[in-house]
Amino acid sequence: MFNFDFYNPTRIVFGKDRLESIDKYVPVDATVLITYGSGSAKKSGLIDKVKAVLGNRKVYEFSGIEPNPCYETLVKAVEIVRSENINFLLAVGGGSVIDGTKFITLASYYKGDSRDLLKYGLAPIPFDVIEKAVPFGTVLTLPATGSEMNSGAVISYEHGKYAVMSELAFPTFSILDPTITFTLPKTQVANGVIDAFVHTTEQYLTFPVDGKVQDRIAEGILQTLIEIGETTVAEPENYDVRANHVWSATLALNGIVGAGVPQDWATHMIGHELTALFGIDHGQTLAIVLPALLEVRREQKRAKLLQYAERVWHIESGSEEEKVDLAIQKTREFFESLGAKTHLSQYGVGADKIPVVIEQLKAHGMIALSETQDITLDISQKILERAV
After folding, report:
1. Where among 180, 206, 234 does a domain terminate?
2. 297-316, pLDDT tens digit by residue?
């Protein structure tokens, strides 16, 4: 097992009827900016409920954070934070709203051009670059990204998606009420299951380092998502199933699975380009890329793929090749059982578009991906060819 530091200060408030907890964890003298997306949180009455809990605190609203939060939108919120002396943010939404709010919290105290914060990638922004951020909490409406309990965000800018990481971007608290997610469209629920699943495999399907606890946690999350996936899509008001979906998505990316083990993230990096170029939902891109990547990288990932086959899919007979083949097949079939398409061609993206994706990967410095940094542009091309 690798050396690691683990730090996670986020308080999770889980279960039914937990909105009242906002009053406990937002300072009584706070000036609050509520951030949210296209308006569903407003139309459903959730924003009004949140405002009622906030009581006499001074409250502002900022809506319109996109499904892939855009830098240009977020800097408008930064201006409000600065002009109105906002000292607490409350993100009401899914991963995109929470990611966008993280950027707002960091950029609001940054003295330079806030685009600078996009250049660090998966490396944390150094404390000498930014020393202070506006504290914030979250009310989760879509279980998918785990952003409600981690310190990372992905921000869109000029046809690219950029990771932003900082210890200052952990939420102080997150309200996880599964009933709030009951009205989500089935496609978003399916995307959320896939996102949580692939977050887990990015930290699990690499190479063995004897991280036994991390492996067992990862396998438990994967098995849970497989068990509940179809039901959480088909039965949106099945509380127990949705509760397990919500908690699985949070645990998948709160740092515990990846502590002390190698991490890949190539599926996400390639997927980000597909979203930016063709507008395919993030979760849908992962369903396209992961099976293809596992096929191309089967030798490099052989030991963990065999473990995955045996422990997660309970494949106990056949040769090693047959086990790996069946595990990848079952992964693809699982995504498809949720209603997801697993080939680029099903979205009207043919092989002729692959050079454009490769050029974008090159432009964004994604030329040495994977847990061993050996996925070159040529290998990314093979993955995309397999994904068509």
Report:
1. 180
2. 999 999 999 999 999 999 99
- Identify the three-state secondary structure at position 299: coil
Could you tell me which of 190, 101, 192 has the C-alpha nearest to residue 138?
101
Q: Any bridge partners for residue 163, and if so which? A: 154
Residue 338 in 3-state DSSP? coil
Query: Is there a domain that residue 274 lies in?
Result: yes
In a domain, 5, yes or no: no
Within a domain: residue 85? Answer: yes
Alpha-helical (H) ranges within the chain are: 21-25, 40-43, 46-54, 71-83, 95-107, 186-204, 212-234, 239-252, 266-278, 282-296, 302-311, 320-337, 354-363, 377-387
**What residues are paired with 326 via a beta bridge?**
none
Q: Distance between CA 116 and CA 123 in Å, rounded?
A: 13
Is residue 195 domain-shared with residue 283, that is, in the same domain? Answer: yes
Among 180, 200, 228, give the residue marking a domain's end.
180
What is the reported pTM?
A: 0.97
Same domain, 121 and 225: no
103 is written with which tokens? 């950027």
